[in-house]
Every structure is written in structure tokens, then in C-alpha cells.
Amino acid sequence: MLKIRLKRLGAKKAPTYRVIVINSTTKREGRPVEELGYYNPKTKEMKLNKESAEAWVKKGAQPTDTVKYLMANCNADGSLNYKKKEAVKLSKKALAKKAAEEEAKSAEEAKATESSDEQA
Predict the structure, then answer these.
(1) Could you read off the pLDDT of 47-68 as tens digits, one per residue?
(2) What pTM value is reported for the model?
């Protein structure tokens, strides 16, 4: 069975990967059937031959989850369509403080509406 998976290259703590088609029983750094491109997770740089990858999938090659994600988020020219997340993760203390502020604000608005109802 053929797999489309990543072959790890690069130094320690500085990985780069090649997207390859390989037999599922061979080791990760084994000789590939075909190299489809490369991916650098540190710089989010990628070059992938998308047509060839899709042709291998049609022939029965199974992409791994990571390669499936890369193929789905690939532009027509083979570069990665990376979108940086806008949401900022907050600590538990910051989340509690934000929730308390929102509760205080909603209570203040409720008082304002009650007083305007009584005046009317």
C-alpha cells in the first residue's frame, strides 16, 4: 500500500520535511517512489506538486492526516495558504477578570433600563 507522507530532514529542533510517496512498510527515511515537494513548519514555506499528489490519491495512495491538511490548504501554485490565528489565548486569571467585567457591565445596563422604565 502506498502512502503520501512526510520525510524528516534538517538539524535537531530545526525540522524540514519532504512530501513523498512511499510504500507503507518502509521506514520514514527510506527511498521514496516519488518526491512531491517540501514543507518547512518553522517558516510555513511549502512547495507541493498538487496535480501529481492528486493523481497519486486517485491511484490509491493514502495521505497521512498532516499531508491531507497540507493538500487541502495548498494554493494552485503549490504554496501554503497559511492564515495566522487572530484569537489571543488568555490565562485563567485573565478569563475570570474578563467575565467579571462583563457581568458588572451587564448589571449596570440592567439598572439603567430599570431606572428608565420607572421614569416613564
Answers:
(1) 999 999 999 999 999 999 999 9
(2) 0.66
Question: CA-CA distance, 11 to 34, in Å (whole number)?
Answer: 23
Quick one: CA dihedral 62, 66, 68, 74, positive or negative?
negative
104's grid cell:
458588572
Taking only the tens place, the pLDDT of each residue in 63-73 is: 999 999 999 98
Residue 37 CA to residue 17 CA, distance in Å, equals 9
Question: How far apart are alpha carbons 70 and 49 in whole angstroms?
Answer: 11
The residue whose grid cell reads 524528516 is 8
**60 C-beta neighbours (distance < 10 Å), count:** 8
Task: Estimate the share of the chain in helix, then strand, then coil, as percent rounded to the nearest 5.
Answer: 40, 30, 30
CA dist., res. 116 & res. 28, Å (int): 71
Is there a contact between 52 and 37 (Cβ–Cβ < 8 Å)?
no
If you search the block for the grid coordinates 495521505, which residue do you land on?
63
